Amino acid sequence: MPLVYGALLGDHAEGRVSRVTLYDTDADRLTAVARVLAEQGRDVADAPAVVATTELDEALRGADFVFSAIRVGGLAGRAADERVALDEGVLGQETVGAGGIAYGLRTVPVALDLARRIARIAPQAWVINFTNPAGLVTEAMSRHLGDRVIGICDSPVGLGRRIARVLGADPDRAWIDYAGLNHLGWVQGLYVEGRDELPRLLADPQLLESFEEGRLFGAELLRSLGAIPNEYLHYYYVNREAVHAYQQAERTRGAFLQDQQEGFYARMREPGTPAWATWDRTRAEREATYMAENREVAGAGEREESDLESGGYEQVALALMRAVARNERTSLILNVRNRTTLPALDEDAVVEVPCLVDANGAHPVAVSPLPYHALGLVTAVKAVERAVLEAAESGSRAAAAQAFALHPLVDSVTVARRLLDRYTEVHPGLAYLDRA
Ligand code: G6P
Ligand code: MN
């Protein structure tokens, strides 16, 4: 939220956002974040007004844009998602594999309720979904909001920028030929003035290993793929080692973040704590430790300074709002309904692809067809997402079991059944699965 508010503070054009309503179920958290925003806006004359509420309907009424970033079950829930999966020898990441399914099963019912509420109270609003698993949650919400919900992730944007940078191209003038699902996409081309520059990158092993994804995957794999995968594909291509590294880690990512965030909110309860500085230090530590185990497995070293800065999410969010609110046309990689972009998927499947955005919303544009290996993963994971959506809408335990069993990173139906049993034991939010 402070990142988005910071982006809003830099926008002085006519029609800019003039009022922000913060909503949270937890009043304590609201107070802390409101304090950060107050410090950020202190010396800005036209800073958007900020109000805070724990009443959802009050927050929604009259809104032009709704930013949705929720964490059902909190970070303790995320840590449990990871632990259960790792104990079964499979990946517990919050968006990929068994952990992503467990998190999706908890989150989708809440996201559906939210979407219904928005459709009733703020039918005119555009909804920008940040909630993970972002593709799945956006698809769930689109069942009530249609194309008025748009999912955002900064990974493809960051990837496109990094590739453009090493090629010496202006990221804002490069066209990224990217397609897939959220956290499951590939860059197949990068066009500058009509010429594809990606072959030049693929031909140069040194250049290839000079940026994050290049170091993560290694030149050899990238050259054999003929594409640059999203960083989250590391969990697929190097799955066994990634699972092992996470099993060895002292704490899971969720457990680390739980401690970190609790520490932040505790400090914020003390009077005199510098709000912005404390928040920004917390953010920087989170960035520096992001995907640390994956980088360790790959021997990729530390993250680059430019990747530690903010600029991803909030710039996409601001560009998206400006395009919609002021018809400032732009192209962005977003999570939207497929239409006919990826012909193997149906029209309502939410995919992550480049879109032209204007006052009428986000319109996906043509991309190169995905090769079979990529299409195989995309269709398999979409089938998993559909099983999660069915389970969330009907309460069917069989559908939930199928979601785990169909996932390419869950290698046994027996393990899938045990995962579902364990997850329903530890998560009260999954009690609904006993309905059918
Ligand atoms: C990246 C991903 C997001 C994720 C974020 C924070 O930006 O694309 O989906 O929410 O990192 O990850 P973390 O592990 O710090 O929660
Ligand atoms: Mn993401």
Cα-based radius of gyration, to the nearest Å: 21 Å
Strand content: 5-15%
Class based on secondary structure composition and strand pairing? alpha/beta
Helix segment tally = 21
Key words describing this protein structure:
alpha/beta; 3-stranded parallel beta sheet; 21 helices; 12 strands; 53% helix; 14% strand; binds 6-O-phosphono-alpha-D-glucopyranose
Please explain how this structure is put together:
Strands 6, 7, 8 and 9 form a four-stranded antiparallel sheet that branches. The chain has a three-stranded parallel sheet with strand order 3-4-5, covered by helices on one side. Strands 10-11-12 form a three-stranded antiparallel sheet. Strand 6 and strand 7 (184-192) form a beta hairpin. Among the domains are: 156-237, no CATH class; 242-294, no CATH class. It has 436 residues and is α/β, with parallel strands linked by helices. It has helices spanning 2-9, 27-41, 56-60, 74-87, 97-121, 134-145, 155-166, 198-202, 205-208, 212-217, 219-225, 234-237, 239-248, 253-269, 275-288, 292-298, 305-308, 313-326, 372-394, 397-406, 413-426; strands spanning 19-23, 49-53, 65-68, 126-129, 149-151, 175-181, 184-192, 195-196, 228-229, 330-337, 350-358, 361-364. It binds 6-O-phosphono-alpha-D-glucopyranose and manganese (II) ion. Residues 134, 153, 155, 183 line the site of manganese (II) ion.
Topology diagram in text:
Layout: H1 2-9, E1 19-23, H2 27-41, E2 49-53, H3 56-60, E3 65-68, H4 74-87, H5 97-121, E4 126-129, H6 134-145, E5 149-151, H7 155-166, E6 175-181, E7 184-192, E8 195-196, H8 198-202, H9 205-208, H10 212-217, H11 219-225, E9 228-229, H12 234-237, H13 239-248, H14 253-269, H15 275-288, H16 292-298, H17 305-308, H18 313-326, E10 330-337, E11 350-358, E12 361-364, H19 372-394, H20 397-406, H21 413-426
Parallel strand pairs: 1-2, 3-4, 4-5
Antiparallel strand pairs: 6-7, 7-8, 7-9, 10-11, 11-12
Helix pairs in contact: 1-2, 1-18, 4-5, 4-14, 4-21, 5-6, 5-19, 13-16, 14-15, 19-20, 20-21
Bound molecules: 6-O-phosphono-alpha-D-glucopyranose and manganese (II) ion.
